[in-house]
Amino acid sequence: xxxxxxxxxxxxxxxxxxxxxxxxxxxxxxxxxxxxxxxxxxxxxxxxxxxxxxxxxxxxxxxxxxxxxxxxxxxxxxxxxxxxxxxxxxxxxxxxxxxxxxxxxxxxxxxxxxxxxxxxxxxxxxxxxxxxxxxxxxxxxxxxxxxxxxxxxxxxxxxxxxxxxxxxxxxxxxxxxxxxxxxxxxxxxxxxxxxxxxxxxxxxxxxxxxxxxxxxxxxxxxxxxxxxxxxxxxxxxxxxxxxxxxxxxxxxxxxxxxxxxxxxxxxxxxxxxxxxxxxx
Length: 280
Fold this sequence. Notes:
It is a single chain. By secondary structure, the chain is an all-alpha fold. It has one domain. The protein has helices at about 5-25, 30-55, 60-85, 85-110, 115-135, 135-140, 140-170, 170-180, 185-230, 235-240, 245-255, 260-280. The longest helix has about 45 residues, at about 185-230.
């Protein structure tokens, strides 16, 4: 499998959508409630979609179960990282470390061995992403850094799990629909058990924006999983993390975070990494 321009363009659109729903959570007044609301709405979108497209092949069900468990840790760490730090700090650290972990793991779990140029692309994107996040803000927000780096490991775990699952499913659309119908419930139920009285008033105020975020989340990950059936998982995982470019722009534009020369240089490094991935 090779990365075509069509697949690359689709993944870049997905990256923009991914940055968008993360910026939405970061902009909220309560990160945990907002994350839970997005997942509840995502499940509400996934359930009827499953009824229309059907369930994926039984061979993919163990991966669905594993991914559902892993995503509980993902959403918990995500909300805490954004509680303690800026989007421009936490997001690049989470997304920049994960591709290297995926690339290292896929050779053992999937049997995909990236070419030398692909390794250059993965390294370029990861280093650029980390440069966007590693700044003096990191020293002032150690908890955000800790949650973000822990979540990078979680992201690598669910990326590989879902990469295997979607290939076993027989249909990327069926797998995505089933995943969104199922994977958000553990975190939603956890938040409801702890903060149910606060959740529903918050949901009534926030649901229009949260619905857009849920749609963006579903489309973003759906594109990524479809792309993993067309190109190597490590390549897609790295390319998807160009979402940090969009996150940096959204953080500057909407959240009034600074866009420094360091971030501009890191952006150029990421673009170079993307080109190396395509050529590799």
